[in-house]
Amino acid sequence: MDNPSLVFALLSTQSPLLPEPWALRLYLDVAWGLVLAAVLLAVLPRRWLGVQLMRWLPLPLVLWCLLPGGVSPAHWLGLALRAPSGLLVVLCVWSLWRVWRPGTPGPGARQALRPWAWPLIALGWLLLLDTFALLPFSLYAWGFAPLLLGGLAALGLLPALLARERAMPVLWMAVLLLFILLRLPTGNVWDAVLDPMLWVWLQVDALRSLRRRV
Length: 214
Hints:
This protein has 13 helices and no strands. The chain is mostly helical. It has helices at residues 3-11, 21-43, 51-56, 58-65, 73-81, 86-100, 109-113, 117-131, 139-142, 146-162, 167-182, 189-193, 196-213. Helix 2 (21-43) crosses helix 5 and helix 8 packs across helix 13 (196-213).
């Protein structure tokens, strides 16, 4: 393959690799179960939950989401919000793991994500503008280009190289590895690193942080 053909292949968005239907179905159910478990553990007062219930709560929620049809909350969440991003799922898994193993070293999911909040918020606004065709180019379509995946991997490693901050780069690379292997959730890398629920939560958390500083 000559150089122009290689560059064209890396930039091409015409033949995207999409996830297998069975993988998408399984991901939708398991991912929403993990997200629900992490949200409930973050919202419910700890005094309401014993240690054992906190540790075992994700299992019945995931099993509930695996039920078919309208019995499953994942069915309705999928209709309303589609699938959660890989980044949101990985952050929820990290949060649940720290509940299961309280002595795990490193920052919590919220602390690890905070330095990444503003770039992800800006990305969300750009994608929103692209949705309404207010950009001079199709940013979302770039998410199907193989070259963008390499660029995101390089950007994700910068904090580890410059600031020796390893927690979020490891989680970021886990998200991209999941995307490479299974193309989840949509075959577009933007959907792997951001979704509407995560984007709204990042903005609320950022505004709260700014309010505390004022």
